[in-house]
Each structure stands twice: as structure tokens, then as C-alpha cells.
Amino acid sequence: MLIAVSSHATQSELSQYKLNISLEPENKLLHGLANIKPVADTTIQLQRFNHVVINNIEIDDKISDFQLQAGKEYKISYQYTLNRESDFSDNQHILLMDNWYPEINLLSNYQLGVIVPSEFKVITEYNTVETSPIAERNQLHQFEFKHPLDRLTLIASTEFNVSSAVYKNIKVETWFTHKNHTFVQAYLDQAVKNISDYEKLIGPYPYERFAIVESPFSAGYSMPTYTLLGSRIIPLPFILDTSLAHEILHQWFGNSIYIDYRYGNWSEGLTSYLADHYYAEQKGEGSNYRKNLISNYEAYINNQNQFPAHKFKSAGDKANRAIGYGKVSMIFHQMRQFLGDEIFFKAIQTFYQSYKYSKASWHDIQKVFEQFTSEPLYGYFNEQLIQTHIPEISVTKSEPILEQGKLWLQFLLKQNLKENFPANHLHLDIAFNYSDEKLNHIETIHLIEKEQSYKLPLADLPIKVSIDPNYHLLRKLSNDEKIPNFAWLFGRKNSTLVVVDKNQLKQYQGMIDTLGLSEKQIIDPENITFKQIKTHSLLILGNNKILDQLFRLKDSKSFTIEAKRHPYNPEEVIVIAKQGMNQKQKFNNNDIKKISYKLKHYGQYSALEFDNANVLSKTIFDSDNGIKLFDRNTSEVIDISKTDTFEKIINAIEKPEKPKYKAILIGEQHNKFEHHLNQLRLITKLNQQGYQLAIGMEMFNREKQEILNQYIDGKLKETEFLKFSDYFNQWQFDYHLYKPIIDFAKANKIKILALNVAKQLNRQVSLKGINNLNKNDKNKLPKVLDFSNQKYINELSVIYKNHINMGERYHKPKAHTKSKHSQTSNKKSFDNFIQSQTVWDESMAEVSVNYLKQNPKSILVILAGNGHLRYRHGIPSRIEKQLGQKSLVILQDEEISEGIADYVLQTSPIRSIESPTLGIYLDNKSDKEVKVLSVSKGSSAEQAGIKENDIIKKLDDISIKSYIDLKIALFSLSAQKTIKAEIERDKAVLDMVIQF
């Protein structure tokens, strides 16, 4: 529970504090005399001071603090050595920030006198100043403070040049050195604009002057009447555009309304919201700002460092800022969404007017907002300030339904809560996007239980429905919303593994050190396990084998650093830093170290490209906005009066001597003969028009390429080809479906490429995962595996969840053997499923690219299942990345949607003669005999009298010793309606007649 009492006080109730100091910069000494009359008991710390005398009593230097009683008057003389922890002093500069005088934790009316060498210009939190010369070339500055202060700061320099402008009755100044004099006018103009903006938004500026003061330190600090900006950061454009506004707004919140730190710091979050966020909104970037804020929160906050918002005190590290600046900003934004703009800003204005020149706490903010609501807000503030977790929402059972002639969207929302945590009360925007943009609208729903069902009316079937796409709620991002960026690496620094070859370690040591990574986190790519990959963020340095097993990256001519989605763990990130293979200037350890320092300032970016230490380009990768409730592609209307023919496709390829496309991918549903006829038509037309042509086929194992070559060259009979190519084990679909294409290729001496990996290898990947393969199997994998396509992974997730057979992927062929899927599906993880599908796609792409690079005048027609080609995800994008050239993608009998392919062929069914089936299930364990495990009712085998445990010895005159022999025999005898069979039963040989 948060309980606080307002510290609102009148001028007469304030402590009185008169301070006189004399500065000796050359000796780094400060002599001080403080006269204090506190209105309440308080404590001062003395351990930083020397020669302390209080009311004529010398105090032991070992005393760390001293109690002051209310109403009494204390005179304290002391000496202070400059260049302590929070101060700075040299011959030109003096900066006094904390604990340079006996501080009291009470608002006070101050008087300050400063004696300093006359060449110094001095600034503090004053309204007016009188300066007069005194002996020994010194000056006395008498500062008047019209309003109470919670502390004093002071900066002095011999190099200040003061420039000014006037806005209304406010004097606006810059105190810059000559180094930054060219920026004076820009800062004066921007400061006037910011002050004007905030007066309209909040209320009159609280002081009579405002100064922007150059500091030797890089950070920005705001004090009443002035702000410090680092000398090095003043020239940076984003300081003028954003940071200055933040520091100016602190004049309203944090400087004129002071923070009651006993109950947390609300000021940084409110200032960030009304400055940084406000100006992002003015540019139409409010949603992106909030998304980045939430992304940073998730990147830096974990179970070990999270704390409630009311315990935030000051900036500190990135995690601290993610709570005090980020989370608190969202607390105010959510309140604004609840109240509406008019009431919210009235409340902010009232808060400012009510607590100006006094201290305020979260409780005071709550009380002000309650003046504008019809209900108490204790529940909201308590929930937001006490809870350490943020809401996580998941969607299930989302589908459109038609009920009594009306269209509805029904879905179930769930708050994923830790055990015994109460559900949050959430206001959620549901955004509906229709094909007609004028129908787009947003509805608000309330989620107050751990699980709630909803049914919302639809005006039409939407293209997309999403939850909170504009990020009005601080919540966990769904996996599709997460932006891979460097902030995730910094936030996961302690659990990051650095993957680097030993021979490249010296080159990248500067990056490892700069990012604060230890030697214990460094691992050689030869030694990393899949478990380590899956459970850690990775920093991959240089080119190595782990990189090739995860992504296919385009080569660059410069040094690049890129953050990637972790394909196996959405809570982690993979960052790759490497030199381009064609990079002219090779970076050494010092070069990379300089880059690493800059990397810390680019946390929101996904990719950076460097020339020397200069940033050439910076990129933020796209991601979904909002939690997806429903998504469909727009339907496209096809004018059937304008049907196109194959000629249009041929014409699109352009001239045979200079084809527009090197790879033409034509998809199929494997068991549709009409699809294979279309493939043959395309191949025939290309061949007739003189294209140098090759055919790539998914149906064959790449290890059997020599068998394919021998058959095309006429060195093998068809039955030998089918046996030695292992077609029936690899593919299982009836060979009659592909025979016309292969016959045409053989007759015309067209090369056929076997594209696929061996079925057994892919099965091993499905069962074990890549890292658990034996060395021989690993050597058979494609050289590079790319897991970076998140949309494809999402599609695979749907397939996986729908229990698609992993061994058969997109199809379920007529089986002559019992499927082992039911026995093994529980052992196959989704990670392995992603890997097996990627191995499949990469193999086909790799063989295709290698051929096209070796045969630059040829084009390759690739025959593969539609699922490998849709939206260019599977094979096409992988080929295109390597060739740097777009492929032509043709699908057959697919629902037409944007981007699914270049062409979609609509076909009519054509019945084909297929190999006959016996209707039996076989024991596949033996390669010496074919034993019947069971017989289907009503099948040809049952009618012929074949029984369980029979052994098939012959079909007609063809000896049967294996499953492959049986398949070849059935193919060879497919034209016959009746065949003879020789069956062994209980060691007796039986002759039977099988009719089909």
C-alpha cells in the first residue's frame, strides 16, 4: 500500500538557509559558512567536510552526520576539497552538484554569496544576482532566490560567453564556450519554442529566467532556472530536437514541483511522457515511440532486476531507466487513455498549479486526478506502482462465425499470470481493418478476469483484427511484435554467449571488453551445443559455422552489426558482427572497439553499417503492430474473360539468349496429374523455343544424382533407375505422375537435378535436431541454413499445431506400409520441425544455385510442392538471396492472395492411370522378403485370398524380395487388370490370381 502525506508548504513554513562560500580554484578549496534555521528536525552529513565548526564548537572529523532541531539556528563553518565524487574543478571550470555544503532534506528559502576569481562567470538557481569586485582580483556574487529550493548547485567557468533572448518576461540564455558558439541561436530559438509549447500545455513558466549551460560532463541535468548540457553533446542534432525539451520541462516537474523521494520519483516518467513522447506524437510517431519504450522495458527487465515503480529514485542503469522513465511514462499514458485528453491535461494543469514550489508524491498526483473522476483511483495507482510484472495477453479460439445471418468475431483472451497473482483490469483497443479503409474502426473491451470470452459484431469480413496496435497499454509484446534490436543484447548481457573462432578472438576482443562480456562467456563454435544455442542470446563474431547453421546473410562491403530474431527462443536475440568479404579496409581490434562504444547509443536499431567508426546506415526491422486476432489476405477478382495462357509466362521470361529469370519454380499438389501435365507443358514450350534448360525435382535425393545422369544418358533401364534411385523410399507417390516429365527429359537430353536430401537424413533431423546428428550426417547438410524468416516460421507453426505428418510435410500419400507418425510425433519438437523443413528447403535451393552458377546460360525449372513456394518463403527467397535475382514463382490451384506467387494456374481434374494397389500393410524391417502384416477389407489382396503373415514371392514373373521390388512390379504391371501372384504361407507355396 502506498501512503503519503503532502509536503505542500507556504513561504512562512519554510526553513531559512543563508550560505556564503569562497572558492580557490588554484588550490581546489572551498571555504563555507552556513546559517541554517530548520522548520523541522533534520540531519546533515559532515563526512565530506574538513574543519567543521558548529555554533563555535569544533566537530570531530569522524562524525558522519549531525542532528538539527526545529526552530534552532545553526552557524556552520567548514572547508571542502574540490574534485570529489560528484564535482569537477580545474583552472577554467568549477562544477558543484551534490554535498558541497551541509544539505538538509527540507525545502528552504536560500541566500547565497559566492567569492570567486573575477575571470569566472558563475551560475546557480537564481532569479537575480549582484556582482561586486573585492580584494585580490576576486568578485562577490550575491544571488537572490525568489522561490524555495530543495538544494543548490553551482557552475563557474572562465570560458563562458553569455547570449540571451527574451520571451514574454522570461530571459532565455545560453552559457556556451567558444567551441559551441555556432549553436547559440539554434538553442535560443528552440528553448523559446519549448517554453511556449509547455506554457500552453501546462501553465505559465515558473521562473523569470532560463539558461542552457555548457558542462564538461556529457549528461544533461536540469535545475531550477537552468540546465546543464555536455560540451560534446551540444552539437548532436537529437539533443536540440528532443533532449533539450525534456530538460526544459523539468522546470515544471522536478524543479518547481519537487519530488518527495520517500515515495518514489514520478518526475522522470511524467517529463518523458510530456516531452519525448509529446514531440513524437506531434510527428505522428507516438505509437512507434511507445512500442520502442515497451521493447526496451522487455529487453532490460528480468526477474532478477525488476522492482515496483514507486521505488524508482534516479536514472542509474538501463534497467532503472526502463522502469522510472519507460514504465512510469506508460502509467500516465494509460491514465490519459482512460480519462481522455481534455480531462487528463486539466488534471496535469491542476497538479502544477496546486503543488508549484512544494514537494509532491504519487499520492498527491492520485488525489488531483480523483478530482476529475467519479471513482477513486487507488486501485489503478496501487496496481501500477506496486506490481513488478506487466500484463501478458494470449489469444485462442479466434474465428469469424455467421449466426442468424449476422457476422461475428469470437475469441478467448487469457492473462498469463504467475500463481496467486490477481488479474489486471485492462482496457484494450480492438482495431478492425476492412478492405474499404473507410470502414476501419476501433472498439474498446475490458479484460478483468484471467480468461474471458468475447463475441464482437462485424460489419464485413475484415482483413485484419488486432489488439492494441497503437500500444496504449504497457504489456508484454507477442513474438510477432518484437523488434530484434541491440537493446535485447544489452539487456541479456549476463546470459549472452560470445561465439567466435579462436583465430579471430584477438580481432574482436575490444568489442567483448567494451560490452562488458567475460572470458567465461566466450565459446568456440566447434564446442557449442544446441541447448546452449536455444537457452542463450548469442553474439556471433566473424564468419563461422554456427552462423551458417542459423542464417544466410548477404555479404557487405563494410563492417556490419545486425540483430536477428532467435529462431528457437523469442526471449533471446542473436547479434552478428562481421566484416564484409569484399571490404577494402580490414578492421583491427581498436577499430572494432571504437564501433562498440557507439553501439551502446543505438539500442533501438536492428542493423548498423560502419565505415571506419562512422555509421553509414541504421535500420529498424519491421514487425507486427498489435496482437493478432484475425488475419487474412484480401481476395483478388479474376476477370475470366481475360484468361491467359502459357504464352504469357513464356513471354515474361523474355528471350532465350538473355532470360529474365534464371530459376522458374512451378508448384504442385503431388497427387494431381493435371499439375504435372502443366509442368510438362511449361518445360516443353521452353525447350521448343530454344532455352538452355534443366529440371530440378524435389522428388529425388541429391545423393542419387549420378543415377539420374545415367538414366538420362540411356545407360540404365527404367526399372533399374527406379530401384537404384530409391524413388519409392524417397517419395512414395505413384511414379506414373512424373513419368511423362522424366521421359521427355530423357528423350531431349535435358538434365534433371536431384534437389532433396535423403529422407532418412531429414527424419533424423526431425527426431534429434541438427546438433545431435553424427558427423557423417552433419556433412550431408546444406552448407548454410537460414532461420531468419519469421513469417515462414509462423506458417510452419500452424502446420505443426494442426498435426501435419512431419515425415510427409504437406501431403499424406496412399501408404502401403504403416505410418510410424503416431509412434514418433510426440518425440518431435517444434524446433526440430523448423530445422527439418529448413534443411529440406535449403538443400533444394543450394543444389539449384550451384547449378545455375556453374551454368550461367541455363535456366532451371524447379518442380516442388506448393508449400515450398508460397509467398516465396521456402525455396524462392533462398535462391534469390544467393543469386541476387528474382525468380519466377508459379503455383497451382491455390487461393489467390497478394504476394503468394507471380502466377496461379487454375486446373480441371484429369484422371490418370496409376499403379494398382494391393491393399496390404507390410513389415518394412526386412529387405530379403515382403511379409504381409494386415489386409484391408474389400481390397484386391483380400479377394485374391492373401492373408496376414503371407510372404509375397512373385508378381507374374517378377521376383519380389523387398518393398522396392513390389513397388516396381506394380508400376510395371499397371496396364494389366489381372496378374499372377506366388505366395508363401507356412512354408507352402500358393499360386493366386489378383484382379484390380
What is the number of strand segments?
Answer: 47
- Terminus-to-terminus distance: 82 Å
Strand ordering within the main sheet: 5-4-7-2-1-10-13-12
What characterizes the major β-sheet?
8 strands, mixed
Fold and architecture overview:
- It is built from 27 helices and 47 strands.
- It has 996 residues and is α+β, with helices and mostly antiparallel strands.
- The strands form ten sheets. The chain has an eight-stranded mixed beta sheet, with no helix packed on it. Strands 29-28-30-32-31-33-34 form a seven-stranded mixed beta sheet. Strands 38-37-39-36-40-41 form a six-stranded parallel beta sheet, with helices on both faces.
List the helices and strands and how they pair.
Blueprint lengths: L14 E10 L4 E9 L4 E4 L4 E5 L2 E2 L6 E4 L5 E8 L6 E2 L3 E4 L11 E10 L3 E3 L4 E7 L3 E7 L9 E4 L3 E7 L2 E7 L7 H18 L7 E7 L5 E3 L2 E5 L6 H13 L7 E3 L7 H16 L3 H15 L17 H22 L1 H15 L2 E3 L1 H9 L7 H9 L6 E11 L2 E10 L10 E8 L7 E7 L3 E7 L6 E4 L18 H6 L4 E4 L5 H10 L7 E2 L6 H6 L1 E5 L3 H4 L10 E7 L7 E7 L9 H11 L7 E5 L2 E6 L7 E5 L14 H8 L9 E6 L4 H16 L4 E9 L3 H8 L5 H7 L2 H4 L8 H9 L3 E6 L2 H10 L6 H4 L11 H12 L19 H4 L5 H25 L4 E7 L10 H8 L4 E5 L10 E3 L14 E4 L6 E6 L4 H5 L6 E5 L2 E2 L3 H10 L5 E8 L2 E8 L1
Parallel strand pairs: 1-10, 16-17, 17-19, 20-21, 28-29, 28-30, 30-32, 36-39, 36-40, 37-38, 37-39, 40-41
Antiparallel strand pairs: 1-2, 2-7, 3-6, 4-5, 4-7, 8-9, 9-14, 10-13, 11-14, 12-13, 15-16, 18-19, 22-23, 23-26, 24-25, 24-27, 27-35, 31-32, 31-33, 33-34, 42-43, 43-44, 44-45, 44-46, 46-47
Helix pairs in contact: 1-2, 2-3, 3-4, 3-5, 4-5, 5-6, 6-7, 10-13, 20-24, 22-24, 24-25
